Amino acid sequence: MNEDFLRRAIQLAAVARESGNPPFGSLLVGPGGEVLAEEHNTSVTDADITAHPELKLARWAARELDPATAAGTTMYTSCQPCGMCAGAIARSGLGRVVFALSTEQLLTLKPGGDFPVVPQDGPALFDEARIPVEGYYR
């Protein structure tokens, strides 16, 4: 773990807050220790609920890095990634995430706590739903 990279993520979180966005920042460090990309939250200023820095970096990595390089990267982030971002990080093939503030710690600082859980129903219509999917992953 490199505390300087974590401190940079925290600085990026401050930039996000100063610009009117939620205070989160992240950077992606390559296998050789070089900073490949940096992002901060822009969900308010972009009017985009998905504009989290972790998600933006995961998307960038999936587009710009070959799988071996992506697997050798470390994302340093000011706060533990949310479920949306964690899913994108996993799919992008990034190698590791190091965070400064855990979700549990964040919730002690956030009035109202976490987002509500949205009810989900399913599965349903398996025989119909499988048709476009079957064979795709082979």
Automatic annotation (TrEMBL):
InterPro entries assigned: CMP_dCMP_dom, Cytidine_deaminase-like
Q: Where is the CMP/dCMP-type deaminase domain positioned along the sequence?
A: 1-114
The highest taxon in the source lineage is Bacteria
From the Swiss-Prot or TrEMBL record, give the protein name. Nucleoside deaminase
Q: Which organism is it from?
A: Allokutzneria oryzae
Give the classification, highest ranks: Bacteria, Bacillati, Actinomycetota, Actinomycetes, Pseudonocardiales
